[in-house]
Every structure is written in C-alpha cells, then in structure tokens.
Amino acid sequence: MLVTQNGAELCALLIDEIYGELPSRIFAVLLNRGRSSLPQLVQYTSMSPRQLRHGLAVLNQHSLLYFDVNSDNGMTVYEPNTDNAYNLARIGKVLEMVDTSLSPSAKDVMQSLLLSGQTRISDLVAAYQSKIDHASNVAKLVKDEGDDWPELNGTNGDVQVVKMPDTSINSAGQLNSVLCRLVEAELVEVIHKKTFLSPQDILRDVEKETLDKYFLAGVKGGKGKIEFQEKVADGLRKVRDESKSLKRKLEQNGTAAKRRKLFSGVGMSNGNGTHEEESGDPGLDPKQVIRINWEKCLVELRNRRLYQFVADMIGENTAYVYAVLLKLLTKRLARCRLDPTIDIKEGEEDIGVGFVTTDEILDNLKTGIDLSLGLGKATKDKISSKAAEVIHEHPPKKKLFIAEAEVDGDASADEEDEEGSGSESGESDAEYEVRGRSSAPVGNGTKVKFADAAAGKEQRLDRPGQLRQHLLLLAESTQHFVRHCGPDEWTVDFVPLMHTLCEAELDSVIEQRSGKPGLRLVRLLRDKGKLDEKSLQNVALMRKAEVQQKMLEMQTAGFVHIQEVPRDNKADVKKSFFLWFCDIEKSATHLVDTSYRTMVRCLQILEVIRQQEKDVLMLTKRTDVKGREKDVMRKEYYDRYSRFRENEKKLFAQVMRLDDFVSLLRDF
Amino acid sequence: MAGDEADDAAKIAILKDALYDKVRDHGSELRLFTQKDLMELGIIPAGNLLLLVRVVQALTDDKLFVGVNSGAGIAWRWRSREDAKKYTSLPNDETMMVYAVVDEAGADGIWNRTIKHKLNMHEAVVKNCIKYLETKGYIASMKNVEHPNKKMYIKANLRPSERATGGPWFTDGELDSVFIAELEDIVFEYIKTHSAYLGNQGPPRDAAGLRAPNKGIVKTEAEPSRGVKRPATEITNDDQAGPTKTHHADGTATSTSGAAGRPRGKVYLPMPAGYRHYPTVLDIAQMINDASFTNNTTLGPHEIQQLVDVLTYDGLIEPIKVNGRRGYRVTRPTKQDTVAFSERRKQREQDGGVLIDAPRMGVKPPTNGLTEAPCGKCPVFELCEEGGPVSPGNCVYFMQWLDIEDSVLARPNGAVTV
Asked: Any keyword Nuclease (chain A) (predicted)?
C-alpha cells in the first residue's frame, strides 16, 4: 500500500490510540524514513535501544512490522506494515461481523486474539483455561488486559463489549471447536517463517530460489521469461498458502468437512450452541501461532456492504437472498482483490469464485423470511420469462478490457452486450421454453412453475419460485449484482460489480457536495467521455452560467478534470479546445486521501476533548473510582464523564463509517 | 437595326415571362436549375444558347433569378415577384447587396460583422444600409442562442430557425429552466408510477414493529424542517374529502422523511424480472402529447429522449432493456415516496417555494462517512492542520457537531475530586 502523508498520519494515530505512544512514534519514524535498522532508529528517534526494542516488540506482536534479517551481516531491518495499521480502524466491524456470522463465542476468541496479537494456541488455551476456572468471574481476562489498553473498548464503537455469561467460552473443548470454526472460515491464519517478510522481500527470496533451482544458466529469451514468471508465481502462491496449513489439516480430518456441511449457512451457526460444539473436533496443534487474517475478514465485510447496497437499491428481502448467495459463493474466496503477480496470470481465475445453485441458496435461507414480499406483481402476459431468464455464461467483459471500459464508459458497452444477447435469445426462444419446463422435475418438482404458461395473475409462487424471482431480479439489475451463469446456477462478477459500486459511492458524495446538477454533469461525462462546455450545456439542459459554476466547483473538489487541446501547432490558448472529463480512479484516490485526513481529524478532535476533560478523566483512572464511576463520582463530574464517553463513541463511529467508504474505494 | 433591337427586347420580355412561369411550375424556390434544365423546359426556341443567356441575364437583372454557384457549375433558382420587388425598390446597390446577404442567410440569420466581411464594405455603409432596411421593415434583428452576444439580422418575414432559437427548450433566447423542470417532474412521475408496483406491504422482515419507530426518531433529529412542513399539510387535509384523505396523510409523512417513515402498506416494489411494460421514450412522448401539457410546442421523441437522458444522468431512472425494447424504470423503487403527484405539487405551492428538505424528485442520496463528518463540508478543510490558524484544536464545526458548548472550553482546570 502506498502511503500518503495523511495515510501515514492516520496509521500513527491509530496505533497511538490503541497501543500507546511509544509504538506509534516508532511507527511514524519508520513510515517517514522507510526501512531502518535498530542503530538507524536510535539515531532517528533519539531513544535508547532498550526503549526501541520494547516498542518494536509491541509492533511486532501485533503484526504491524515487517522485518528481514540480512543473512550476510545478521542485521535486522524493520519496515512498517501499513495495511495492518490501517486495519486497526476496522477492529470493531470485524468483531461485529464474527459475532453475527459465526457466534458470540467466536467473537470473544477473536477479541482475545486482537488484544494479544499473534498468539500460540497453547497460550490462548491457557489464558482461557484460567478464565474457565473462574467461570463465575468471566469478564476478568479481558478486563485485565483492558487495563493496559483502556481505549480498545472505545474503538469498537457501538459494538461495545457486553459480557454475557452464556456467550463466552466455558470449556476447553468449546474453545477448540470455536478455533476450528475460525480456521475453517479462514478468519484466522497461521504464522510461518515468511509472515514477517515484506512482500518485496518475499518476492526477492522466491525469485532467488527459483533462479537457483530452475534457471542456473540464467533466464533467456521471451519464453524463458514467461516460464520464470510462472515459477515465481507458483512460489509466491506456495508462500501465501502456507498460512492455511491449519485449515488444510482440518480438512484432511474428515470431521471438519462433515461439520461444515451441517452448520454452513448464514446466521445459522448462531444456533450451534455450547452442547454441540463440544463434540469431536480434532485438537489443534498447540504449538502453532495464529493471528487474524484480515484479507478474509475484508471479504466478509464486502459481502455485508453488498447486502446493504442491494437493500438500498432493490429491497431488503432481495438483499437477504443476496447475502445468502454471497456467503455461499465467497466461502472459498481468500481475498477481495486478486494479486496481479500471483493470480491474474493463471488465466482461469474464475474458478476461484465458482457458482451457487438455487437449491443451495434455498437450503441456507432462514425459514422466517417471507420471500413473497418485496416484489411487484404483474400478470403473466406482461412478463417475458425469456428475457428474464437469459443466461450469460461468461463474464460481461474480459478482465483485460475492464480498464478500457472504465474510460470509455460502461453504458455503451453494456448496450451492445445486451443487444447481442437479445437477438441470440430471440432465436432460441422456443428452445428456451422447452428447456425451462423440462428442468422442472429435475430440481424440486414444483420449481419452475414460474415458467409455466398456465400461471394466472394472482398466482402464488411456491418458495423456490419466489426465491428464483428474487435472483432473477438481481440478475436483471443494471448493476449486474448476479450473473445467471447456467440453469439454476448463479455467480457474481466481483470486479465490474465493485467498480459500479465505487461509482455509486462517488455519485452519492458528489450529489451531497454539488447537488443534483453536479451529479448530472459528472454522470454525463462518464457516459459520453470528453466534452466541451457547449455540448455539456446542450446535453444537460442547463444554463451556461450554471454549468460553468458547477464545473469549476467540481474541478476544485477533484471530481472532474479539464484537458486543453490546441487547434494547431501554435497552441494558441484562445483557440484551444477545453474538454472536460472525469477520471474515476483519480477522484477515488483523492477522496480516499480526504477520508484519511478526515479520520485523522476525528482522532485529533478526540484528543482535544480528552485534553479538555483531562481533570475528570484523571479521576476515572483512580482505582477506587474505576468501574463504578456512577456511584462514586459527583453528579457534575459524572455528567461530564458520560458526555465525554458519548462523544468518544460518536467519533469512533465516525471513523468506522469513514472506513466503510475507504474500504469500498480502496480495498473491495 | 433599331427595329430589330426593339423587336428583340419585346421577344426577350415575352420569353422572360414564359421562362419564369415555367420555372415556377417546376419546383420550389429552393430548386436549382442548371443551364441544361432551363433549355429542356422548351421555352427558348431551337436551343439558342445565346438567347438563353440574354433571357436569364434579364431575369437576373430583375432579381427574379438568383445565380448560385452549385457544385456542377452555375445554376439559378427563382425568386417570387414580391421579393424581387423589394430588391428593385431599394435605392442603391449597397443596400441591395446587404439585403441579398441577409436573404441568403435564411432562417439562421446573419451576424452584422459577417455581412461586413462578405461584402468588404465600410462599416458605416453597412450600418446605413441595415438601418434603412430595418426601417423599411425588410429585415429584423434577432437573437441566436448559440451566440447570444452577436447582433444578428434576419429577413423580416422569416421565423428564426430551430438552431437559432434553440428548439423548444428556449424561450426568447433563454433556456427555459422552469419549463424543463416541470416537464422533468411529469416524466419522472410517469416513469415512477409505470415502472414499479404500488404494493400494499409493510416494511419487510419480521422486525417491522421494532424498526419503524426507531428510524422515525433518527429522522426527526436529522431533519429539523419537518416540523415546519407538517402543519401545512394538515391544513390541506381539512379541505380534502373522501378517500384521498388517508392516503394523503400517509404520503405526507413519506415525502418529508424520505425513505424511512414510510407508512405501512404503501410502497413501490420492483417489477419482476422480464417485465415487458417499462415505459419507453415513445410512450412518454405519447403521454405528454395526449395530455397536452405544452401549448404552442410539440415535443417529439427526440426532445423527450433528451429529458429522459437528463433524468438518467440525475440517477433518478435507469434504462432497462427487455427483449430489445428499451424502457426506463425508477431507481431505488422501495425508497420512493408514494404521494400522488397533484398532492405533492399542492404542498410545494403552499410552502411558497420555500426550500423543503425533501428533494423535488426521487429520494435523497445515501450519505456516507465522508459527507456526514464536518470535514466533508468544511470550507477550510485544505487549510486545516495542527498548529495552523485553523486546526482541530479550534474547530467550531466539530464542536457544533458533537454539541459541545464553548463554556466547556472556558472552564478553568481546577482540581477535581470525588
């Protein structure tokens, strides 16, 4: 991740907020100076090596550092891990996600992992053992640790840790099974010897290894180069997969697979309560060190975001169906964005996503959801089932063309696409109807009632039929939430979809900032490409003055850009064309940076109000006050204290909401 | 010889009239006649080219023929006798030339500087000529929307072309944004009501009972203008009678609170996939013309397409193609309010054009962390830095947002005890 000044400031502030000033200062220096060794750090920070070692240890414990031991001189160099530092802003969200999609006890374990950084399983078990021993005093461990980092609870924002006796771990077996679930969901990964090498170092090592092993004579010719790159990609993949070793082991053990079959599903695993979890999960190797796998967490967070988006665009019931689909689809998806050096070259990367069948979705749908809601009704003759059920076997565009399409504006491309498919399906109309009907008995017996010609106006569809309707609606949406990739098979093309989503998010910012006219102009430019002012006025049906003012306003905000095209060699400014255009990438990067800055401001404001309420806060630190503020403190002070807590919560929530925005534009 | 000449003149005069009448029968004023065309009319005896030249020359002198340099050599078109009379009545050649240039420009009109350039005359002369022609009522000045600052002239009996007036969207050379806004309203309403299903359904999911009040509270906080608006609509309620009453009351809540305070039972739902009757541009044009919202101007499919495009760019509607039929449907249907068009209009009139919080059309855009935070709208965001004149430490916007009074800042930091 390339860090801007604001990004760097944010990372340092986040670390300061959670782990204190010492690590934060070291981290900031590392960000400013880049890769440094201990003596260099001593020089930069004018701290003693002892202090530095302490700070580095904390950073390392929480995976905020990369380090590399030079094999020649034994010198260790440190590098900041900005991705993980930024991820600190997401702690609350991740915990909440684990809470709802796995179980409260899983959240508890996750939280412990977050608090203590990477942990050996045996240590974790031991820590919990003491907790289990003091079952009456459940909250103790977290609280003890909370002493050192009192702010952490605050960082969780709304997701304040509420200790419920029944949600926490109360036996070693349960802990083990919770860990197994987390490992299976890939939310937790294993640390191996290359974990702490920075990506560049890993690449360097792998390249060196590959050279030593296969290309002793050096890489020669174009063919050799390609082969070399493939080998390197293989090597990188191997390194990456090493962190999944625990999961592989679990999978080899039949029980894991069996269990997954039983308990996979969206909120359902909420139900696999204490009594079941005790049953035979294989013990995990206690020597393994585990930590949180942020990449997979991001995938889950992205699913939630998509759910919200659909809920907003279409409706809640449809969104729920979508959530189930995504949950099933992304089970094996390790990360949101594929790594260009490792994944893209495979040429068959859609294997990673695969597809989900209607039956699978049906099996995982909560029974409480009434699928008949959320859809309009229309008489049979008004519906073209042929058009609705069009199957797109291939992704809309090849991955390579996406970059181009971004510039050219998707709309026109889409149109052609649709036109093409429309004519195709027109030819195979009859065939399609037949296929639709014949597939009926295969699936659920009653499934394809929708395609039956006999359907009347108020015909009530059965549940599979209703589900199908929601899926078809998703497939038909202009955002292409879902692709109907085969009869009863559904998939999602994440790359173009996320691109659309980014645009939508940008749109909402633009609309908030510059109003409807601004939005109109930007979307127009996105659709048409580059335009001069006059044509802008004509197409947007707006007055000249209004257009000029809006465009200028938006140029300052970084939403639109201008290009000068000279008419002749003399490049006379008076005669030049000035073309407006809008560059989504550029605006997005700009907005991300603005968001960093806003997050920084939020945290700084927090510091300001902390200073203001310093006297009261000092009071609450006293051991005789702590924990029973309300009873002990004078009302006046308690009011101030509680108001401070309110504001703190608000600011953290705001940081989290900003992160929603940043993740969408940057990471999803 | 003299007799010959007189004879000749008479002959030419006859031939002239005959040729002129014949040419008029053979086409409109715009048709170009080449030499061959004129010969083949059969007026000039024995293909006498010389005679034809003399006749055409005579006609041109009378301004009844206009010589045009077409691609294939010289050609002529005819001019009506009235117009020709105007020419011949002009006092001098300069005026005639100016008039000719204006005439040639036709319905698009011509800029006075172009006249000057074309004729290579002195400015004062051109000015004089124009003045003369204007007072005579032969030409008139006009405005062109493409070049609003240029002084343009047009033949007095012509109406400025669409290009010059800007088509139906312009009134008196100005973009008529009120007219456009009204039409946008109508088109959007039409698409909204015809592309989504007005269903009777409570908020989805079982949590309905809990959810509704919850959101209501949030909304009231967020929209202070709500209180202002309520009374106005309640007055309307009193005038109203019959079945619309309840609907109206429901609808009001919706329009003010946007998505959330939706009354139970009224909500737009998306149409099932493959719906074939999403309104197309032709449908909308038909509707507009049938209802005759516009007088004097007819809006063709092209103009409606422009309107629909604009609405699409506004993110209010989206194109959707079913079986190659390109229709339009409303975006985010479930969030749309369900107030009837006339009701909303009445409300807006009652508010007297005061800006109300609810958008004119559609729903409010979704917000996100960036636009909500004070920084997202901060006018001095770029200047803000620690230690600078504007810094997080003295940020008034954040203090307002967090609802911290200044008194807190001023409070002396004394010792605090339990």
From this structure: no
